[in-house]
Amino acid sequence: MNYNSTRDSHRTASAAEAIATGISREGGLFVPERFPQLTQERLLQLSKLSYIERAKDILGEYLTDFTEEELYRCVSGAYAGKFDDESVTNLARLGDNAYLLELWHGPTCAFKDMALQLLPHLLTTSAKKVVDGKEIVILVATSGDTGKAALEGFKDIPGTRMLVFYPEQGVSPMQKLQMTTQEGGNVAVCGIRGNFDDAQTAVKRIFTDQALAGRLEQSGRMFSSANSINWGRLAPQIVYYISAYCDLLADEEIALGDPINICVPTGNFGNILAAYYAKRMGLPVAKLICASNENNVLTEFIETGVYNRNRPFHTTISPSMDILISSNLERLLYALADNDDAQVRALMDSLSAEGSYTLPAPMLERLRDEFAAGCCDDGATRAAIRATFDTYSYLCDPHTAVAVKVYQDYAARTGDATKTVIASTANPFKFSHSVLEALGEPAEGLAEFELVERLAACTGCEIPAGLASLKGRVPRFSDVCDREGILDYVVEQLGL
Ligand SMILES: N[C@@H](CCOP(=O)(O)O)C(=O)O
Questions:
Q1: What cellular-component terms does GO give this entry (predicted)?
Q2: Nearest CA owner, ligand 1 atom 9
Q3: Is residue 474 included in any domain, yes or no?
Q4: Is the ipTM above a cut-off of 0.95?
Q5: Is 144 in the pocket of ligand 1 (CB under 6 A)?
Q6: 260 and 201, same structural domain?
Q7: Are residues 328 and 201 in the same domain?
Q8: 112 is an active site residue
Q9: Which residue's CA is the nearest one to ligand 1's atom 4?
Q10: Which of 408, 430, 452 marks a domain boundary?
Q11: What is the per-residue pLDDT across 351-396, written as a single tens digit (0 to 9) for each?
């Protein structure tokens, strides 16, 4: 299986090359040249396997330049003993037709662990194949969850170095504590005076700066990415949607071939794109429901075909989705345009020049066939946390609550009673202040761990070990730079 760049479809890469480099030289994203197909018998077989076996099987279709033994080592290294239990994910029922797919049972309590426990194995295996001996310098832009999961995955991994940039005023206190207390001799964390889009744009610019890449190469190093622009981040996310379908099958919640809907809270469009790719592989999926917070650029796009980032940026209680430039949308555009790279280049040029673009009618029609969308503000998010807890005794984090609300609005609006998997993306204790407020509990003026303990006391939910262990920890990293200073920070840190 080879991969093509969304901005130059003649540029091909093996899986190992796509993963080691992270992004194509001209700024395009790598996409598989075709989608392997899952038959119904295959889904049935997969439903009898463990998560690790399912992951090995599905990823084997994409990572064809990895040996069976390499794949098994990567997948078991990522998932065996690293998650709360060997099922890795959990499905919790929410009413008659919905299930929350809990993806946050890994070490950093967010869905990003599902891919970022695996990426270090995939990346070091890939590097040995295609760029042996080079140190991989991984630059990460985060709005809260990717940063910590990437740091945890890559800490002290030989041959790698990592610099993480996060919006200093745009993540939850727990997310900040998780990142700034990170251990590991190969990592550094820097806050920026700006938002996630500023960090992501600066990092992407660095990845495509050929002069800088040359200087880095002279010192035996190369850049890569641990964001979902890297194929090695996205492929593992496809697995959990297929696995969720298999779990529903094994639990006899659905019959083989029954379509499901998938609803995903998303900002950078990676998590929902993985569900779309699962559908392209033949997973029976009816609608993909895209859930956004007040930064509703994706909702408007799916409803109208106009992508317009020229709008106020909102700092919300679901900060990991505070994004106006959704990187992975580019991969969807490539698919909707039938792999026409010129079309993608034109849309992306318009996005960088004007901050907006409009889909041609045939692409919009295909988009709306596949996707539905909705959004909600912080007030509705809080109300959804409260209502979900009161009605189902289920405590969800603000990002998951956005998806629950959007799904419920969708179901009420359309009458669609198809069984729906809602991606539950983070543990609520990462956002204790907002969750307590939503429950109507006093939260003002309390320190972070007072909030955590109060939330545990009033809900009976367990504080995850990965967060409890941060109590009393002193931050290691306090660097902050302007958004314009990210390049200089990288140059200085790397001694270029
Ligand atoms: N929500 C993300 C933003 C980056 O997304 P990614 O999937 O491209 O890594 C975060 O938590 O940082």
A1: cytoplasm
A2: 227
A3: no
A4: yes
A5: yes
A6: no
A7: no
A8: yes
A9: 142
A10: 430
A11: 999 999 999 999 999 999 999 999 999 999 999 999 999 999 999 9
Residue 11's domain comprises 2-81+112-231+485-494
Structure tokens at 42: 């295959």
Residues 311 and 391 in one domain: yes
Beta carbon of 172 within 6 Å of any ligand 1 atom: no
Q: How far is the CA of 255 from the centre of ligand 1 (A)?
A: 34
Q: What is the pTM of this model?
A: 0.98
